[in-house]
Amino acid sequence: MPSSPSATRPPTAQGPFGHALAGLLDVLLPADCAGCGSERTQLCPACRRVLATARPAPTLLPWTHAAAPYTGAVRQLLLAHKERGALRLAGPLGEALGRAVRSALGARAGAAPLLLVPMPSARSAVRARGHDPTLRLAGAAARSLRRTGLDVRAAPLLRHTRPVADQAGLNAAERRRNLRGALTVLPRARTGPAGFAGRHPVLVDDLVTTGASLAEAARALADAGLPARAGATVAATARPAG
User: pTM value?
Assistant: First the structure.
């Protein structure tokens, strides 16, 4: 049996040029489905349905809603977008994030213009990946929500004030200590540019685990006089039993 086109795809360099080349190769040599491995399509109809129809996942933060549990095809799609540069997945993942924004806000969704504020990525991670996955998803979610008639923008207003340890392997208390005071808003957020005035901030991320990162981001926004109205993520890890 001949190998599939994705099996013969040459490796690409990291960084923006590498991801641009990967995007071109996705058109010329279609990748297998990032969710299930089906051939010659980066997102097969079955995995698209899973992402579009997943039941919302509970989180540890009452004000944060997730579009789906972090399992199966959803997990694989997020990893492909974030770590493997499958940039065309930003559209369907952004639509899922947009649904989570609507769910988190409920009846308030159309009450005022919204500002989606993505969780910041470390500069070293952005350099290594060649893109900022959370910022990309925030932009895709904003476009998706605008198509439904909402007034929504996305803007990166947060930055790290210091390095933080890798969160993997840390429990909830350790994550909170690791992140305490680690975020602040950018100067342009404090000066209140006309594009942000009157907009209700909503924190967005690809994944929520313990909620420590979103809680720290909410603290930073509140300290700057920009309290977050809600939080939304594409997926959430399973809540611990008990």
Answer: 0.85
